[in-house]
């Protein structure tokens, strides 16, 4: 059996993965909160934005950043680009489907159950597609008992995020939920990485270049950072520019107050005008 390292760069990968995960979940929850403040016809764009952010940043970027710290002694690890992109697509589609389901019926337990199963299955599928994308001369295998633990943690994380998405509206509790979700999701990922065992190949391998559709970890870093940064900036700007429920209620109350004040002023002017007319008569 070959030596496998999950923390090749020390705490760098888990810390960055936790930041990406917590930030993605937080922005997704705030987007869902904005969606629930609108009418059903206006919710779709916010739920879609939240789903893309949750899947791409909260789930997939956390997974990829942590996975980039995985190495095998004496071997270069490559990544299959098609399978890596497939894992991203699975994460986005299932996270968006989950948020849309709970966003349309925010208090339905049946909707939450269905959405949690879909998103949880997507989380697990994303993770093991990512593991399947690993290209190395070593022969990889998995420990069944820890695979089950990582799957359970994936479904727990999915239900936690979706349940709080429609029930937690304030910024403080949302941030706390994002931090807790980040811990559970990282635990899921690293439990999954612990199941990977590397063995010497059955046949000698003279040169291994990863194949035409594969690339190294370093090649992923720049597009990953740029993609995460751009998406987070756009979503943060949208949340900051569009008012939430409290701002909407405040603006409505202010407009109502101004309208009543103008009505009283108009009534007073009308009474003064009638009184002036009577005096001239």
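-> sequence recovered:
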């Amino acid at each position: 059996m070959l030596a496998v390292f999950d923390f090749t760069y020390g705490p760098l990968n888990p810390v960055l993965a936790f930041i990406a995960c917590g930030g993605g979940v937080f922005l997704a929850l705030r987007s869902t909160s904005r969606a629930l403040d609108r009418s059903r016809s206006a919710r779709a764009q916010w739920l879609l934005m939240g789903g893309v952010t949750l899947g791409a940043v909260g789930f997939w970027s956390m997974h990829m950043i942590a996975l980039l710290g995985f190495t095998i002694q004496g071997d270069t690890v490559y990544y299959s680009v098609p399978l890596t992109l497939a894992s991203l697509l699975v994460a986005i589609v299932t996270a968006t489907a989950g948020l849309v389901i709970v966003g349309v019926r925010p208090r339905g337990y049946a909707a939450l159950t269905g959405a949690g199963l879909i998103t949880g299955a997507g989380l697990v599928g994303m993770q093991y597609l990512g593991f399947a994308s690993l290209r190395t001369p070593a022969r990889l295998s998995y420990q069944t008992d820890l695979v089950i633990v990582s799957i359970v943690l994936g479904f727990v994380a999915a239900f936690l995020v979706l349940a709080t998405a429609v029930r937690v509206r304030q910024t403080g509790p949302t941030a706390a939920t994002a931090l807790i979700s980040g811990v559970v999701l990282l635990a899921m990922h690293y439990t999954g990485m612990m199941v990977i065992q590397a063995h010497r190949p059955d046949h000698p391998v003279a040169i291994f270049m990863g194949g035409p559709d594969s690339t190294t970890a370093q090649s992923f870093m720049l597009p990953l950072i740029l993609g995460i940064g751009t998406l987070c900036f756009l979503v943060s700007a949208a949340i900051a520019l569009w008012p939430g429920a409290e701002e909407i209620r405040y603006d409505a109350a202010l407009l109502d107050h101004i309208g009543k004040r103008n009505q009283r002023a108009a009534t007073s002017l009308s009474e003064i005008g009638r009184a002036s007319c009577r005096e001239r008569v």
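The longest helix spans residues 245-280.
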